[in-house]
Specification:
By secondary structure, this protein is α/β, with parallel strands linked by helices. The chain is 50% helix and 11% strand.
């Protein structure tokens, strides 16, 4: 008789979820929201690893390398989202920040069955980006066992790229990463639905890896985005506030300086700094 393997940590049964559900919708939502706070606690417990990953990301960026984020399912959507949001927030180039999801772009809006189990596809998808020692590859796997992510990280290591694994599992099913951000938010209120606490914890970790890196790279100054892309009216108003606050000038003066710099926030701030 074979030995029964224990399920991954992310597949555990929540000890109180059923009782909350029996009590009714309102109690279930109230208690589930309280339980969700464990995602923040789990991320906080991994602060040291997140800092290491952030420093590695900053060093990669300042050396001219790329960030490549990869995952499957919810983790893949988080990976692609993080890559996409870095572009306007920090004024980064798409050529240097990429996101990959198992099953390709169609998996962003609908499930692609079996894509996460294709380790070979993870290898080939990353190979198409031609990673090298100058790049950082961040694999996101809630369970820590996703074959697609294992393939991505395996190819990354063989290419000499630096690697980070962001996970809420044991991470035994993927190659060793240079930095392992391991979190344990506990079982989900719906067993195995890692779009809940595990997804939240992974998103928190990714947000802090990239934002911390940009802080070290000088693209965040006194809590402001100094290189944001002003692609909408809302962002142009934000740019005015940033230049006015950091430059110590009026909103009217800030707007004129932004107009003169073609709404390049960093350039406008340099103009303010030169004027003293």
């Amino acid at each position: 008789m074979g030995v029964r393997r224990a399920p991954p940590r992310t597949e555990g049964i929540h000890p109180r979820s059923a009782a909350w559900a029996r009590a009714g919708l309102d109690p279930w939502i109230r208690e589930s929201l309280r339980d969700h706070a464990l995602a923040v606690r789990a991320a906080r417990s991994a602060a040291g690893a997140i800092s290491c990953a952030s420093r590695l990301a900053a060093a990669t960026w300042l050396a001219g390398g790329r960030w490549i984020f990869a995952g499957a399912g919810t983790s893949g959507r988080l990976a692609v989202q993080e890559a996409a949001e870095c572009l306007p927030t920090f004024g980064l180039s798409r050529a240097r920040v990429r996101g990959m999801i198992a099953g390709g772009n169609r998996a962003l809006v609908r499930p692609v069955e079996g894509a996460e189990d294709d380790r070979r596809r993870g290898v080939t998808d990353l190979a198409h980006l031609r990673p090298g020692p100058w790049d950082l590859v961040v694999g996101v796997s809630a369970s820590g066992k996703t074959p697609y992510v294992a393939g991505v990280l395996d190819r990354a290591r063989r290419s000499g790229a630096r690697t980070v694994l962001v996970t809420c599992g044991e991470g035994a099913g993927v190659p060793r990463a240079d930095v392992r951000v391991a979190m344990d938010p506990g079982p989900e209120v719906v067993a195995g639905s890692t779009r809940l606490k595990a997804g939240t914890a992974c998103k928190i970790a990714l947000n802090h890896i990239t934002t911390g890196a940009m802080l070290l790279a000088g693209r965040v100054r006194e809590g402001r985005m100094t290189h944001l892309r002003t692609a909408s009216a809302k962002l142009r108003e934000r740019a005015v506030r940033i230049v006015a606050d950091l430059g110590g000038v009026t909103a009217s003066r800030a707007r004129k300086m932004l107009d003169a710099s073609n709404w390049d926030v960093a350039l406008a701030l340099r103009g303010v700094d030169r004027r003293g």
